[in-house]
Amino acid sequence: MPPEEPDRSAASILAFCQFARAHGLPAGVQQSLAAVEAAKSIGEVARQEFAFTLRAALTSSKHEWDLFPQLFEAFWSASRHRDKTPSGKVGKSGQDAQEHQASFQALTKESIGEGSTAEGETKSVWGASAQQRLQKMDFSNVPQDDFALMEEIAMRLFRRMSLRFSRRFKIRDLAERVDIRRTIRRSIPRGGDPIVLAFQGRKPQKRRLVIFLDISGSMNAYSLFLVRFAYALQRYFKRVDTFLFSTEVVEITEVLRTSDLREALRRLSQKAVGWAGGTKIGESLKEFNRQFGRKLLTGNSVFIILSDGWDTGEPELLAEELRRISQRVQQVVWLNPLLGLEEYEPVTRGMSAALPHVDVFAPAHNLESLVALERIL
Amino acid sequence: MATSPLPGETQLKDVDAVIEAFERLGYVTDRALATSVYLVVKLHKPLLIEGHAGLGKTEVAKVLAAMLGTRLIRLQCYEGLDVNSAVYEWNYQKQLLAIKIQEKSEQTVQEKEQHIFSKEFLLERPLLQSIVAEESAPVLLIDEIDRADEAFEAFLLELLSDFQISVPEMGTIKARHVPHVVLTSNRTRELSDALKRRCFYHWIDYPNFEKELKIVRTRLPDLEEELGRQVVRFMQATRELDLTKPPGVTETLDCAMSAMSLGKHQLDAQTVEETIGCVTKSMEDTEKLKAAGIERLLSS
To answer: Which residue, A2, A110, A260, B163, has fewest beta-carbon neighbours within 10 Å?
Structure first.
């Protein structure tokens, strides 16, 4: 081994794990120990194999897998001083990692930084009051600096919401199906005649969600967060189908269907969407009905449309298409960020034409309002 | 060299031995994957393999089982997978009949119950099968774990920690040989942290030209060299397009086999059109492929 390169002792490996954690690779205690064990098992091998070994133990997603090589190089190259302790200050490779991540463009071409992991320490400094402030802040007002934190809070809230959904259903106690096993048990003393029936609780039917996001000019900032909302909800709902619209309709379900949020956002930004002209809600709904209606609008679906209702098309068309949808689905939910404004009254032609067909009319201008949706969904 | 036996668990010497054994069994691998496999066998930790469809994730488990000379037990995951299908189920019909038969017998209720809920009436499903294997540690393949739900993952996690299963009527069954566990995922959903951290991880990517050509040569030794090269080149070019379902290595082999069975010696545009179903798996993808120009892709 060339001089100055750190040895492969357990101590070095653990130091590397610490270094990795500081640079965006969240390897926990269990994995660090696995890395040490693995290195011991593989024995004296070439540098590359040693890297493979550590990578197998310390990564657990494609994103981390891709990130690993540069971290490995940074730590185990001869130029690095052995006793430089990783202090959270980014080294050369850390900087590359930051740039690499910073180049992920979000839907509105603003970078929602992964840099928050390096600032992870600052999270504790913010405290409850700042978090509350951000939860109430209108999405369109969020300053650039707060973006990363906002996203973090959002994802945490959404995930908890998803978990609550799944737990909620387990407590139900409706008798529906016969539980054969327990029935047999109970029938043994009765010579096999199932006199006393045991029941299974009903397995709740998972619902489908169709999300229709308006991404025209003024709606941009809101859609950004709702895309993340849609992404997080995928975990609970049997199926979340997401669409973007302004003058045309684009399906982004597959794009979001990946385990990595950052990857999903990256793919989203690459998808070309037509922005020209004013919003055509009625037309978009019509297009949606035509292409996807049959497949997606079923009795156990919930149709959520996020839009401020400013429509350059005919309100009659909007009303008609929405009526069609509401006839087929369980609920039509219209989320209007303008409802967050105190003085707002839905008097625009588009909005008022749509209202009779809407089951739930709710605001969606900040995190608080999104979390409140839990009651409806 | 060809006559030496495949290494069993204890004889597995090093990563080279894995590479060699895998190649003998017809699976072209790289050093990284061989290292992961080696670690998994030696340390008895589960391996999580992620990657796009058609890249040989499932095959790793099969080849591993063949290499170790042990049984492969496969659990195919799907949404709604539950304990009955994954672990065990009681043979209800048999039980009901037995109860009827026992009706007049002299046994006490307890004895009857014990008989009804004994191994004789237990249908062992994959997870339980993997625990009760007698001779040697089997390879347990949990395929497409991302299709199962979180409740199942939680159960699996428990299993992977203790390697024992409790059947309420029978007690706890402990593993005689801890199975080698391989999980695959298509990344349609994020797996739980706890599960991911428990496993070693490997990401299988699309192969480069040389590797893919080697795979084709290994699996289709009768294929003409030039045809093989053309197929691989075409597939590599196709992957550059933004298809919803880019073709994997399975598709490459399908395409090559089709061309071969049609008696072709060259991969021309007509052949591609005839066998387009091997390459693209949806209308939209087919159109995208045609829009990109099959001729152009063939000559790239």
So the answer is: A2
- Model ipTM? 0.85
Contact between chains at A259 and B188 (C-beta distance less than 8 A): yes
Give pLDDT tens digits for A97-155.
333 233 222 333 333 333 333 333 333 334 566 666 766 777 667 666 666 777 777 77
d(CA B169, CA B179): 24
Give the integer Cα–Cα distance in Å for B206 and B229. Answer: 16
pLDDT higher than 60, residue A84: no
Does the distance separating the beta carbons of B48 and A42 come in below 8 Å?
Answer: no
Q: Searching chain B, which residue's CA lies closest to the CA of residue A179?
A: B92
Q: Read off φ and ψ for residue A369, nearest 5 degrees.
A: -70, -35
Question: Domain containing A182: what range?
Answer: 172-201
B198 touches chain A (CB under 8 A): yes
Closest-CA distance of chain B to residue A32, Å: 10
Chain A residue with the nearest C-alpha to that of B97: A192
Nearest CA to CA, how far is A39 from chain B (Å)?
A: 9
Q: How close is the nearest chain A Cα to the Cα of B96, in Å?
A: 6
My answer on whether A305 and A227 are in the same domain is: yes
Distance of residue A192 Cα from the nearest chain B Cα, in angstroms: 5
Q: Residues B109-118: what's their mean pLDDT?
A: 83
Chain B residue nearest residue A180, CA to CA: B92
- Which homologous superfamily does the CATH classification assign to the domain defined by B15-87+125-204? P-loop containing nucleotide triphosphate hydrolases (3.40.50.300)
Residue among A42, A53, A188 minimizing CB distance to B99: A188
List CB contacts (< 8 A) between A35 and chain B. none
- Rounded to whole angstroms, how far apart are CA atoms A232 and A159? 6
Which positions in chain B touch A251 (Cβ < 8 Å)? none
Instruction: Tell me what percent of the residues of chain A surpass a pLDDT of 70.
Output: 60
Assigned token pair, A15: 């130091």
pTM over 0.90: no
Report, in angstroms and rounded to the nearest whole number, the Rg of chain A calculated over CA atoms: 26
Query: A176 with A214, same domain?
Result: no
- Over residues B187-246, the pLDDT tens digits come to 877 788 889 989 999 999 999 999 999 999 998 988 889 888 989 999 998 888 878 788
Q: Which residues of A touch B188 (CB under 8 A)?
A: 257-259
Chain A residues with CB-CB distance to B90 below 8 A? 181, 184
Q: A239-243: list long-range contacts, CB under 8 Å, 24+ apart.
A: A239/A206, A239/A208, A239/A209, A240/A208, A240/A209, A240/A210, A240/A211, A241/A208, A241/A209, A241/A210, A241/A211, A241/A292, A241/A296, A242/A210, A242/A211, A242/A213, A243/A210, A243/A211, A243/A212, A243/A213, A243/A288, A243/A292
Could you tell me which of B214, B225, B247, B228 has the C-alpha nearest to residue B22?
Answer: B214
The answer to whether residues A325 and A185 belong to one domain is: no
Q: Are residues A270 and A340 in the same domain?
A: yes
